[in-house]
Amino acid sequence: MTFDLTRRGMIAGAAISVPALGSIPSWAADKPQFAPVSSVLNGRVFGPDAPPNVFPDPDILALDPDAGIFVGHSSIVRLKTGFQWAEGPAWSGEGQYVVFSDVAGDVQYRYIWETGEITPFRRQSFNSNGNTFDFEGRQISAQHYLRRVVRWEHDGSMSVIADNYNGQPLNSPNDIAVHKDGSIWFTDPYYGSLLQEGHPDDGPGPLDPKGLASNRIGNGSAGIMGSRHQLRPPSIYRVDPSGRIDVVLEGKPGLVPNGIAFSPDYTKVYFVWGANIDVAEVKGGGIVGQRVFSDGMVDGVKCGFDGHRVDVAGNVWSGSTSVPGYMGVTVWNPAGKLIGRIRLPETCANLCFCGPKRDWLWMCASQSVYLVRVGIQGAAPG
Asked: pLDDT per residue over 11-22, tens digit each?
């Protein structure tokens, strides 16, 4: 039996039983578990009623202390909960805020660093998912509902970066990364055609094979471009500074792209490809040498991947969609070796580095958002 360990697969497969949060999973029973009372493995409480933090935080696991990616006096803080599905955080260095999406809630939120407030930023967001900022400080968003990538200009206007390829509507742009050459790269899986995440197809589609979902109910999307799914392969695209859109990598059955990020020197690109993170060299507006970077196996447990970011040392920080004790964040060095983990009580979809020194980690995890200070800076921008 195979399991879809993407976060959507975990939700869809909710009937598959998982162990209670306060118990050690059977497949880890024979493995050493550092789990003091304050650990998520023993029902750690987050939020305003939580007991005082302890240092070092028992759910921050430095598997390679020499890597220097964590600090001993920082603890995981849950800032807010109650979202429908938190995704796509990005840091505005100029504005000093984190923007993130509640995809199913159809709202973008902003966390204002100076005050610690979380307020609605854009409502309706058109089921926006991934966000980033370019080298000029402009926000770029992937909108599931309208199947497009947009950029917010300094004067407050909005520009459409991509909404079709050779006249065919996109599926649902998901995650975005900007390259120093001025190009914008984005992934385009199928997830936005889910009823709760965007724009259902008009008739049968990849995620609604019987065509039961009506896009005429509720949001009135019938008639907009792309109401009829064009069955484009889920692909990775590159938008040239001239506006030309090229396919970087075309998906195949079982190989769907998701998160994407560049190495600090922009010579490599890391992207979720099916169940793994792959890496390839960036060359001539395309990629060469594609290979598996990480299969997500930790202690014999498959940790699914969603979004990721890269720090200044080239380490890849990825959200982990798995089971209790392995949900949260995994950190991989440039050679693909696991060097650290952050355990959370919820599946973590996406993350970003933030803060005035870019040395805090923001984590969008299911219904909640979390923050922790780390020992290294994230690569800019976004």
From this structure: 333 322 333 333
